[in-house]
Amino acid sequence: MAADHPEACACPPEGIPGFLAHLSGGDLPADAVREERCIRPPIGCGQPLIATDSTTRVFWNEAEAAAYQAEWQITGLCPDCQDRLTDDEDGYEQ
């Protein structure tokens, strides 16, 4: 099948992490989590979770904070990018 599409990537990604790295220009959710930031564009915003002025997102309760943290650890998306993604899925725009 690869011979049918010579314009395809010459170096196929290795599994899901390789595929995500290919899509994101080499950035992986694990990199974002380790560096305490959002995954870089075009997937996320690349911003640190704690701003330079030491401010951070405020959550309604511990359960909400835990849900956002769990999602961030899987996807590398900060709460704002998670909200944009779910708002887009619901048909809303911010």
Task: Please provide a written account of the structure.
- The chain is globular.
- The chain is mainly α and 94 residues long.
- The longest helix is centred in the C-terminal third of the chain and has 14 residues, at 62-75.
- It is built from four helices and no strands.
- The model has no long low-confidence stretch (mean pLDDT 80).
Entry keywords:
4 helices, single chain, mainly alpha, 94 residues
Give the SSE map.
Elements: H1 15-23, H2 29-34, H3 62-75, H4 79-90
Q: What is this entry, summarized?
A:
With 94 residues, the protein is mostly helical. Helices cover 44% and strands 0% of the residues. The mean pLDDT is 80.
Number of helices: 4
SSE series: HHHH
Question: End-to-end span in angstroms?
Answer: 41 Å
Summarize the amount of helix as a percent range.
Answer: 40-55%
- The total count of strands amounts to 0
Structural class designation = mainly alpha
Give unreliable regions as ranges. none
Cα shape: globular
**What fraction of the residues are assigned to beta strands by DSSP?**
under 5%
Instruction: Characterize the quaternary organization of these chains.
Output: single chain
- Major sheet details: none
- Return the average pLDDT rounded to an integer: 80
Taking all Cα atoms into account, the compactness measure Rg is 16 Å
